[in-house]
Amino acid sequence: MLAEALRHYLLALQFFTRIPVTGALADWAGFTPHRLRAAAGHFPGVGWLVAIGACAAYAASRWLWGSGPAVPLAAAVTCTIATALMTGAFHEDGLADVADGLGGNASRERALDIMKDSRIGAYGALALVLVIAAKISLLAVLGGGGTGPVLAALTGGHVFSRFLPLLLVRSMAHVGDTARSKSKPLADRISRDTLAIAALWCLPVLAVLLACQGFAFVALGIVFAVAALWHLRRIFLRRLGGFTGDCLGAAQQVCEIAFYAGAAVALR
Questions:
Q1: Is the pTM of this model over 0.90?
Q2: Nearest Cα residue to 14 out of 32, 1, 2, 3
């Protein structure tokens, strides 16, 4: 059972990051659509590694550059670059596709066609600029309170934002060209057991943040992230009638930023 869980985790790493899972290790993990569907429960566990990378980049930047007024901003840029390198900007790509598809008044079918186009349009470019600006500025605001709040927000944001999109998978239908979609294994709604495993990945992180940063920090981060997911879910249902893999990536990005926003409000 432990070996199978490790296989699922390695598949999640392989699917969502640039961390090399190749050769004999990839052969041992043994990709199958069924295993990838089960690997969904470990998506927040992928967030653990991404958060570690982001926190290391941020802390190293603060240590190297000292305590000048611009250092929190520079460190926020550095850790944002680090996470993009670790994930290959996988979720940002989904966000851009969703923005292009839903940015105008296209019909459902046309929106889905636009989202499958690898070229980026004006709405997608604008969404990427605004999302990256929001991340960096909110992390800089958190950095005004010291290194601790930023590391806490990065950890909570990266882990919890990878749990919330699974609620879309659980509660909505997959739409679009399922046969060609990268999220095809998730087209069948994930089980309660898979969702429970994902929640278990989140609980230790949130408990530590609760002890270190207090109730308001964690509660507002969660509330803001859940509110963002609820709003996105309404948009996806109204415009598409369900979710696509790009929608899941967009949800991760927006919920991550919303967590930072809630944590920043708590620092007041």
A1: yes
A2: 32
